[in-house]
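User: Is it possible to get a 3D structure for a protein together with its bound compound? The compound here is protoporphyrin IX containing FE. I've pasted both below.
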Amino acid sequence: MFNSDLIGTSNASILSLSVLSIFVVSRVLRYVKGLQTVNHIPGYRPPFSPLDFPGVVLPTSWWNTGLDVHFERRHDMYKEREYISIVPYINGPIQIWTNNLDIAKQIEGGGGSRGVFQKPPESMRALRLWGPNLAASNGEQWRKHRRVMGPAFNAKLYNVVWKKTQDIYRDMVSTEEWKKDEVSLEPVHSMTFKLALIILGSCGFGLPGSWSEPPRTQDDDPKAMTVQGALRIVADTVALTLFAPGWVKSLPFKTLVLLVMIFSEVAQNRSNDRIQDSQRAYRQLSSFMKEQIALRKSSVNSESGVDQSDESIARNNVLTLLVQASENEESKYQLDDDELIGNVFLLLLAGHETTANALAGTFGFLAAHPAVQQELHDHIVEVVGHERDPTFEDYNSLNKVMSAFIEAVRFFPGGHVLIREANEDTILDIPADPKTGKGKESIPLRKGAQVVVDMIGIHRNPRYFDAPEEYRPSRWYNVPNDSDLFTGFSFGASGVYNVADLNLTSLPEGPRSCIGRKFATVEAVCWLTMILRDWEVRPSLKKGETESDWAQRNPIPNFSLTLGVGDLALKFVRRSKE
Ligand code: HEM
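Assistant: Yes, that's possible. Here is the predicted structure of the complex:
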């Protein structure tokens, strides 16, 4: 007699065992191939990659390399050599991580139009949420986007960024809250995110927006989400989409977004209402972008009624200039509607969070370093005085203000990992350390190997920065405000590159460096100048806490789509005019 239940159970066991064996063998083969791809460079052998699911959402620990591994292990990750490999044995790409500037330069220099190293297609997928764009393209496509977008970032734009930033400051301090002698902000991000979005809304897209009336997704509907609110929700989703597993990423895009939105809300134990909010945010932001393009097209085609002055925001915002370039039939490079929308989304995403976080970080560091803050205040008074407002012409003279901002970006670089993939077998050349003459090496890499430029690692590499764990803006004093030595915005393509040698000031801009760099620094220098002249920034202390306790624990990093600083409770105390 046969026992059919027993046969069924044993068949199921055999099947499970076979599946398990196939899985184990496939992982072993993958692992061995991974080691060959990175030429057996020593490093970490975790189950998952730090930049892929599920490693990315798990904290860094003895067994997991999480998204913040390069911060958590910053003191020993590159102790032996300035590059390590990360070869996961279960899931995720095979990578070399580096804190070496020469490697960074080779990777980023070749990341533009041609070159062996390109952005990996799967890392660009989530950035294509609304359409093809500059950051999510390689090769000829990238070149086209950059040719159209480049000219929009010009001196006239920076002039209007400066003026608008100043107007917003005046607008803010005229509100009841800022008429007091002490204003508490918990967290200070509430100020910097609002500022960054208003400036981007007006100078990026020509939208009206004041401190008390930030831009909404639908002008005529007071219940519509603010652009900022909708963007916040969508940006969180994009972060998750970026790190989703390969098979999820290959779903049709709308399904992917929906899935990730639901997952993110469920994972955070949020209600059904929040899931609907997420969908509403996605829909409202989407129609907002389409409307903006349509509006800009009609205003570009009928110039009547548009302010024609060179300083006007209506004329000199990024979107209008992009639409103008794309509507110009004689132009060699044009963007279609999908590409325009893709780039609007990109600018919202890339230009908003990065600047806001860097400004919040700067305020945090200055609260923790009162002597540096006083030096900055004195510098501002020396350059601008008390009787007039600073003008864009003062931008270059306000070098210490710029240094304070750039030093905050050094600590917490918004773009904390820059990922590129070799599209053929290649060799990375590391020249000898100019100081010691040691370390000349060549690293062979196989096609498919990814190189991750670890910006936290570079910015805290003692070979490039003395006492890297100290917030010390003076290391940048006298480096001109437009110098390519500011690595937080990516790298030059050629030339000698060594931050330690601060005599080198004119390096060519890297082909893939940040297009919004000056937009961000002009806004930051203007805002910091206005605030620090009139206000002293201090920590809001917990009961029994001293300022030095506070400074010991702040600011801390916060990893999401970009790297920022954790919540900072600060107060702004009005200064008397000495
Ligand atoms: C403190 C503020 C900012 C920081 C630290 C920052 C940093 C960076 C970095 C490191 C990259 C290179 C990314 C990579 O190669 O993978 C980048 C690219 C980019 N940034 Fe920024 N950024 C900032 C502000 C802005 C602003 C204000 C805008 C727009 C208004 C902007 C728009 C872009 C765009 C469009 C790219 C892609 C460029 C390309 O691929 O050619 N960024 N940024």
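The first strand starts at residue 43 and ends at 44. The CA atoms of residues 233 and 278 lie 6 Å apart.
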